[in-house]
């Protein structure tokens, strides 16, 4: 063995389980992807994935908020968890149910901006259910794990198809041919019977889905993408990567004074800010009116940016400090609990102040999507700070990343249950009854979720707010949406009249 070879081997030994460089490409660390001795896509997985793609092609329209999102997500989840071993754990089952619950919002609410948030959150929660993870790095990589699998899944599926071709069972090509022939026969003879008898036409229309293929190429592409996502999900269940191995290693503890002094000074700074700014933090309406050149917009905006800055600062400080604390020393643990706990408590005071400021702002100028979303975000950040406080007391943050993600998912479901567009319309309608001020132009841009609240407005404000509201026709069952269905019933019972008045902005 040459000296150069020995030097290379020694260098590799010193690096340990680092990412290995092969030629000019960087490879995953060894052991990152769990081995699969079969290394072949099961027949059931291929069939379920094909079914998921077919469902998406037939019923899913990205631009239409409907129950189709839930049905497509359920088909993908069935492909990953019903056709692949090992059996899912209770935690995985809970995460999958949470992801499906987020998709179910599309069957209940009609606000597209809210559905977009829920679909993205469902993707993240579902990906974590497949891969798992305990660290921030592991969860972050798990949320995009499906994008790492195209090449791997292609080989996995190709080997599965080769096994199907050489097996003695039913060939997938024959299945596809029989399915195509059956569909053509049903459609041809069914159309003849439909034209022959109106009653049979009604029965046939109720049984056979009315699929309106307005964009066949786009539908096929969407179905192919969903099928690929289902196969990738099944592959991740079969060969689950260990992304936690990519997380930074714990830092080496340092002397107590090296981290206690900065934390102590930071606590004093926070305490001084809260003590001096008590009138600012809790002065409320009186403080705004007594202070020159201070508006409600400035008052609320100042609190929000304080909260944002404090959030980032607290997360960074806690992440850095915990890595430097010697957890084996009882004195270090005590000082860390006191200093970090005080920082979290003071941050909670600022959270409460920001929520109070935004409440005053909304009472004065009305409710909008941005203001309600900011309020919800502030409340969730308060929950995050409480979790940080608990982690500081226990000096154990292994559970913290999952807890923060779970709180975000539960918070988003709660936000959807609140029905933000409906809540905005209801509060603005109440404000109109109290003050006579209303921003009809803004209310007109709300979704069908706001129709029940806007319907209670007196005329002509009601018609001015509801004019142009798109409630759809509800012809296809897979386009069902509870909010649209309810709005359609309301507007059929009380049609929108003419807008005969002008309203100033609130």
TrEMBL record:
InterPro entries: DUF4153. The keyword Transmembrane helix applies. The keyword Transmembrane helix applies. The chain crosses the membrane at residues 40-60, 66-84, 96-125, 131-154, 175-196, 216-236, 257-282, 302-322, 334-354, 374-392. Keywords: Membrane, Transmembrane, Transmembrane helix. This is Uncharacterized protein. It comes from Rhodococcus maanshanensis.
């Amino acid at each position: 063995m040459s000296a150069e070879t020995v030097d290379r081997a020694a260098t590799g030994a010193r690096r340990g389980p680092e990412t290995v460089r092969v030629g000019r490409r960087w490879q995953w660390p060894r052991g990152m992807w769990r081995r699969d001795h079969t290394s072949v896509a099961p027949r059931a997985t291929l069939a379920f994935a094909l079914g998921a793609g077919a469902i998406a092609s037939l019923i899913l329209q990205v631009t239409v908020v409907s129950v189709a999102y839930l049905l497509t997500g359920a088909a993908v989840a069935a492909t990953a968890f019903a056709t692949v071993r090992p059996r899912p754990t209770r935690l995985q089952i809970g995460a999958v149910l949470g992801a499906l619950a987020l998709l179910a919002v599309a069957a209940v609410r009609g606000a597209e901006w809210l559905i977009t948030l829920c679909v993205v959150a469902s993707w993240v929660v579902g990906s974590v259910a497949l891969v798992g993870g305990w660290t921030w790095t592991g969860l972050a990589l798990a949320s995009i794990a499906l994008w790492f699998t195209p090449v791997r899944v292609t080989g996995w599926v190709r080997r599965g198809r080769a096994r199907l071709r050489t097996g003695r069972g039913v060939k997938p090509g024959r299945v596809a041919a029989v399915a195509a022939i059956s569909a053509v026969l049903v459609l041809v003879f069914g159309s003849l019977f439909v034209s022959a008898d109106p009653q049979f036409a009604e029965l046939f229309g109720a049984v056979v889905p009315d699929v309106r293929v307005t964009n066949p190429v786009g539908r096929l592409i969407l179905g192919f993408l969903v099928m690929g996502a289902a196969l990738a999900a099944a592959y991740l269940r079969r060969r689950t990567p260990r992304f936690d191995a990519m997380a930074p290693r714990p830092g080496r503890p340092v002397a107590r004074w090296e981290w206690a002094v900065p934390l102590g000074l930071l606590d004093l700074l926070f305490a001084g800010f809260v003590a001096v700014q008590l009138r600012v933090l809790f002065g409320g309406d009186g403080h705004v009116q007594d202070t020159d050149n201070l508006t409600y917009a400035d008052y609320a905006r100042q609190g929000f940016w304080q909260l944002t800055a404090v959030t980032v600062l607290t997360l960074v400080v806690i992440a850095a400090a915990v890595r430097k604390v010697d957890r084996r020393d009882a004195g270090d643990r005590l000082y860390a609990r006191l200093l970090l706990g005080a920082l979290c408590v003071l941050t909670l005071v600022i959270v409460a102040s920001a929520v109070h400021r935004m409440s005053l702002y909304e009472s004065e100028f009305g409710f909008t999507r941005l203001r309600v979303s900011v309020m919800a975000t502030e409340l969730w950040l308060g929950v995050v700070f409480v979790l940080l406080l608990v982690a500081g007391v226990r000096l154990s943050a292994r559970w913290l990343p999952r807890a923060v993600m779970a709180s975000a998912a539960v918070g988003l479901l709660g936000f959807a249950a609140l029905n933000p567009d409906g809540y905005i319309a209801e509060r603005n309608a109440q404000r109109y009854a109290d003050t006579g001020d209303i921003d009809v132009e803004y209310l007109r841009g709300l979704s069908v979720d706001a129709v029940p609240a806007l319907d209670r407005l007196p005329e002509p404000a009601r018609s001015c707010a509801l004019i142009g509201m798109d409630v759809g026709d509800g012809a296809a069952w897979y386009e069902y949406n509870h909010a649209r269905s309810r709005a359609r019933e309301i507007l059929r019972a009380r049609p929108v009249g003419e807008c005969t008045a002008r309203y100033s902005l609130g």
